[in-house]
C-alpha cells in the first residue's frame, strides 16, 4: 500500500491536532506538522509531500506567502494545497486561489471537510 505524505502548516497546536485527527481517519497517509510558513518550507526542502494544508494567519511567514513560494518551486508547483483559515471573505478566498491554492476551507474545522479535501486531491484507492 502506498502512503501519501501530508504536511500541515498551522501555528495553533490545537488546530493542528484537529486536522491530524481528521486525516488519521484516512488510511495510507503519513502526516507531518509545521508551526509556520518558514518551518513548512524547511520540511518541504527536507522531504517530498503529496498534499499541503496551511493556515493563512501565522507568525513569521503566513500561509499566502507559503502558497506563493511553493507554486514558484518547480518541484512543488503541482502539489495540491488546501487553505484552512478564519478568513471567510470572498476576496481572501479569491486571492488564495489566484496564488495557487486548490481548496479553501473556513474555520471552524469540520472533520468531513478536511477528509473530503484530502480524498479529492490525492489519488486514494479507498
Please give a structural write-up.
- The chain is of the alpha/beta class.
- It has one domain: Response regulator (Rossmann fold), CATH 3.40.50.2300.
- 40% of the residues lie in helices and 20% in strands.
- The protein is built from five helices and five strands; from the N terminus they run βαβαβαβαβα.
- A five-stranded parallel β-sheet has the order 2-1-3-4-5, with helices on both faces.
- Helix 1 crosses helix 5 (111-121) and helix 2 packs parallel to helix 3.
- The longest helix has 11 residues, at 13-23.
- It is globular.
- Residues 5-122 form the Response regulatory domain.
* Radius of gyration from the alpha-carbon trace, in angstroms: 13 Å
The DSSP helix count reads: 5
Unreliable stretches (pLDDT < 50, length at least 5) are none
- The global form is globular
Question: Share of helix among residues?
Answer: 40-55%
Question: What is the fold named in CATH at topology level?
Answer: Rossmann fold
Strand content: 15-25%
Largest sheet: 5 strands, parallel
Per DSSP E runs of 2 or more residues, the count of β-strands stands at 5
> Residue-averaged pLDDT, rounded?
93
Distance between the termini: 11 Å
Overall structural class, as computed from helix and strand content, comes to alpha/beta
Amino acid at each position: 500500500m502506498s502512503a501519501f505524505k501530508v504536511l500541515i502548516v498551522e501555528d495553533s497546536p490545537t488546530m493542528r491536532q484537529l486536522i491530524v485527527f481528521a486525516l488519521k481517519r484516512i488510511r495510507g497517509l503519513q502526516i507531518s506538522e509545521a508551526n509556520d510558513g518558514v518551518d513548512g518550507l524547511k520540511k518541504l526542502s527536507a522531504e517530498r509531500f503529496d498534499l499541503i494544508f496551511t493556515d493563512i494567519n501565522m507568525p513569521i511567514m503566513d500561509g499566502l506567502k507559503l502558497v506563493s513560494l511553493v507554486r514558484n518551486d518547480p518541484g512543488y508547483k503541482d502539489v495540491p494545497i488546501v487553505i484552512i483559515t478564519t478568513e471567510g471573505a470572498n476576496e481572501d478566498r479569491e486571492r488564495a486561489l489566484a496564488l495557487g491554492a486548490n481548496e479553501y476551507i473556513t474555520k471552524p474545522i469540520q472533520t468531513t471537510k478536511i477528509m473530503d479535501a484530502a480524498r479529492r486531491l490525492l489519488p486514494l484507492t479507498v
